[in-house]
Amino acid sequence: MTEFEFIERTDSACPFIVKMWVLLEGSPSPLKLKADITKVSDLDDFKGILKHEYEELTNVRPQNIVFLHHNNTLKPNEDVQTLANTATAENPLVVRYPISAVNIKVTFVYGQKQGKREIPHTSGSFDQLQALAREIFKDLEEGTIYFVNDGTEIWNAYNFNTVVKSQTAQDNNVVLKLKILIEGKKKYSDWKLKDVFKDILKKPTYNSLSDMPVLDMTELPPLDPPFNQNQLTKFVDEIKVKLSSLRDEFGNETKNRLYIDAFMTHAVDYIRTQINKSVRLDMEQGLDGYGPVDYWVKLVEILLFLCEAKAEDMNQGSSQAIVQAQSGIEQLSKLGYEELLIYGIASTGKLWRFIRWSGSSENPEVHISKEYTCNFKGELADEKEILTYIAQILTVQVYLYDKNSEHPSKRVKHMFFQILIVKQISVFCI
Questions:
Q1: Diameter of the chain by CA atoms?
Q2: What's the distance, CA 330 to chain centroid?
Q3: How is domain 6-96 classified at the CATH fold level?
Q4: Tens of pLDDT along 246-262?
Q5: Three-class SS of residue 280?
Q6: Which fold has domain 100-182?
Q7: In the chain, which end has fewer C-beta atoms inside a 10 angstrom radius, N or C?
Q8: pTM strictly above 0.85
Q9: Quick one: which of 93, 421, 407 has its CA closest to 287?
Q10: Tens digits of per-residue pLDDT, 23-46?
Q11: Which residues of 117-128 are buried (b: 16+ CB within 10 A; e: fewer)?
């Protein structure tokens, strides 16, 4: 006996019963539906039977019921008997239906990239979102997609419908911002230094940051022109205002970020004023979906990132910066660039380390600078030095990009620079 069966009619007065595997989309498992299809020839007629069998469909208009089989949308004139012969428990006839009348406006976020779509709220909305994510972002990694909305993870249709119902609709629209993640992909903040040495750098013999090759920041080309006195005065004044307002305290993520703001904004302002006005600073973006980036500076593919770290020591910040750098290398490789160089920064606002990644993701050479300390005393000489280092690296990035064509050939080797800064939470009092 197969998973479907017919009770043949002997005359037109007898009922014609069919048993078919049917899955109401979103339900945990399909059911073998036994129905009299004496007066049913196609799926359009079959909708009436389903509305009678399933309470969820009672108030649904027939034209809003959609059928799928083997992930293909079926036409309403498909023959029911044929489907009864092909639908199985493993591949049932799927019934998609509206859950509410709201229109869902979705902004997908994958790393630095975004995409927007609008979809109806149906039993298939979650599956539709997964398909749209892969359609929009061609470089999305293999694996099971899930989403995060305002800190809430969305793994299935139930999670998604719960989130939609929790939103307040405006003009019949629900607006969601969904960060795309891949199951099993480790988040940046989960990486420990020993795991970075072993799994990322392929250096299992490293025990501490001091085992890594040293990066000499004095090798960077000097700024031309250097920061002028007016620019430095504005930078110093902003730092001093923050120190006064916060009583010279470093103690949590919000406070540390206020200090780092000054370095970021003044370094970018220098680049925009002296070199290229198209450089821009933005905040709260991701690199590839596996951890937040608080700041990034963008000039086409050339980006300056600052990434939040949930640790109180420089080891955690450096670990996170290295993993972020690897993600940046992978993104540039996908764009076709062959010779790659990325800089990263781990910082608490007071302590700073610079990281340089050269080479491919599989065969990297990673150097790390000594630890720089900003004491925030006097005329802020140490702070001016850090500001200059950031501007120097950005200058190199922009000049290297500008001397190549606007659409460089993938056959030609190019060198692009990126910076990733990892911000940490540490307690410091001046």
A1: 103
A2: 14
A3: Ubiquitin-like (UB roll) (3.10.20)
A4: 887 777 767 777 888 89
A5: strand
A6: Ubiquitin-like (UB roll) (3.10.20)
A7: N
A8: no
A9: 421
A10: 999 888 999 988 777 778 899 999
A11: eeeebbbbbbbb
